[in-house]
Amino acid sequence: SQQGEEDPQALSIQEGENATMNCSYKTSINNLQWYRQNSGRGLVHLILIRSNEREKHSGRLRVTLDTSKKSSSLLITASRAADTASYFCATDAWNTGFQKLVFGTGTRLLVSP
Amino acid sequence: DGGITQSPKYLFRKEGQNVTLSCEQNLNHDAMYWYRQDPGQGLRLIYYSQIVNDFQKGDIAEGYSVSREKKESFPLTVTSAQKNPTAFYLCASSVGGAINYGYTFGSGTRLTVV
């Protein structure tokens, strides 16, 4: 089934640096979403970008979408230790007339003090 | 506060035993979902329900069963037919389909076979 692939699989940076994660997907989408998961917890919705949007901001988060390349990126600026988590992209997929999310394998981000 | 409650947080299953994972939401969301997450992996969809008394198989439904008798509740039963049930199980809900809405997730149930 359609699935996003995040890159890199793991990323280690220092506090204050920017973190960039990328997501590639295979088929046409209506929207792409990014989620964060702290270790052993559920996922938290961060941002949704529609296929007709190219860039979206939310606080220190910046998401871009390039539908021609079937790719998206998540930029976290001025990272903090509390940003340490796994980040997943998710794309919508049709199934019997109902659109559901298909998740990628995630990027594990470690922000060191 | 509105949200999704999953219980228990940890669950241990003996070989050949059925176990039921609870998922309750007070967000008035129509759609609910069950995902399985294996270590270092993404999420795989087990079952989903668009409305009460209706549910559909996801990508890995074999060995699992669900019911949706109330809008607020979507319990998942892991049956003895599921040969490798050890995993982290996540329940989610949304207002409608993924075309417009993000999902709200519970905090998960970690199931271990002993």
Question: What can you tell me about this protein's structure?
Answer:
The complex is a heterodimer of chains A (113) and B (114). Chain A has strands at 5-7, 10-14, 19-24, 31-37, 43-50, 55-58, 61-66, 71-76, 85-95, 98-103, 107-112. Chain A has 113 residues and is an all-beta fold. In chain A, strands 2, 4, 5, 9, 10 and 11 form a six-stranded mixed sheet that branches. In chain A, a hairpin with a 4-residue loop joins strand 7 (61-66) and strand 8 (71-76). Chain B has 114 residues and is an all-beta fold. Chain B has strands spanning 4-7, 10-13, 19-25, 31-37, 43-49, 56-57, 64-66, 76-78, 87-94, 104-105, 109-113. In chain B, the strands form two sheets. In chain B, strands 2, 4, 5, 6, 9, 10 and 11 form a seven-stranded mixed sheet that branches. A four-stranded antiparallel sheet of chain B has the order 1-3-8-7, with no helix packed on it. In chain B, a hairpin with a 5-residue loop joins strand 4 (31-37) and strand 5 (43-49). Chain B is globular, with a radius of gyration of 13 Å. The N and C termini of chain B lie far apart (35 Å). The model of chain B has no long low-confidence stretch (mean pLDDT 92). The A-B interface holds A 1, 3, 30-31, 33, 35, 40-45, 48, 88, 90, 92-93, 95-96, 98-106 and B 4, 6, 31, 33, 35, 40-43, 45, 48, 50, 56, 58-59, 88, 90, 92, 97-108, 110.
